[in-house]
Amino acid sequence: MKEKFKLEKSLKEQLEKEREARLQEEIQKTEIERNKKQGAKRLKTCGILEGYDFFLNNLCKHGLPKKEDAFDFAALCLLRFERKRKAEKMKELQDRINKRNHRFDIPEPPKVESPGKGSKKKGKGEKSKRSASPKTARSKGKGKKSDKPKSPPKSIKGKGKASSVKKLKKK
Questions:
Q1: What tens digit of pLDDT does each residue of 101-128 get?
Q2: Which of 44, 62, 65, 100 could bridge to 73 as Cys pair (CB 3.0-4.6 Å)?
Q3: Rounded-to-integer distance, Cα 171 and Cα 166, Å
Q4: Cα–chain center distance at 134
Q5: What is the pTM of this model?
Q6: How confident is the model at residue 34 (pLDDT cuts 50, 70, 90)?
Q7: Are residues 79 and 98 both part of a single domain?
């Protein structure tokens, strides 16, 4: 009896171990499949698969490049695809913003010109800053030139050449 009981017990343990091993294998398989699906989704969403497809289409159209130019050709194709994709995404985003604005009746903000060269146009009555008279405060130094020679800037006491010269003379 004891032997039967031990045999049954050992058989049950073996069956449980086998079941656990099968479950672990199934779990690993499902995780691998899920990771593959997630990887494919990531590749699709970030555009790598589309870029690869774009490259292969260009390769078929233009033929194989020279041996030393193969990587340059691939890089140029991917850069072109990236610019094209960014432009499409920007267009899609702009369309979404426009739809949202129209749905909520939000007026478009006014376009503000950035300050720079040529951004301000002169009207008939306006004068440019350069044609201002020499008497204005902004035009110091411009206009009439005086015959007086310019004096050098005064040095601060204890600093500069003038004070050192006086010290030398005193000695």
A1: 887 776 667 778 777 655 455 555 555 5
A2: 65
A3: 9
A4: 48
A5: 0.40
A6: confident
A7: yes
What's the rounded Cα separation, in Å, for the pair 130 and 52?
58
Domain final residue pick, 79, 106, 133: 106
Q: Give start and end residues of each alpha helix (H) in 47-122.
A: 48-62, 70-104
Residue spans of beta strands (DSSP E) within the chain: none
Distance separating the N- and C-terminal Cα atoms of the chain? 127
Location of structure tokens 């995404």 = 89
Q: How far is CA 155 from the centre of its chain?
A: 51
The residue range of the domain holding 70 is 47-106
The one-character DSSP state at 67 is G
Q: How many other CB atoms are found less than 10 A from the CB of residue 77?
A: 19
Residues 65 and 38 in one domain: no
> Would you state the structure tokens that stand for residue 114, as one six-digit string?
């950035």
The C-alpha atoms of residue 134 and residue 29 are separated, in whole angstroms, by 87
Q: How far apart are CA 98 and CA 106, in angstroms?
A: 9
Distance CA 164, CA 155 (A): 11
The answer on 39 and 66 residing in a single domain is: no
Residue 150 lies in a domain: no
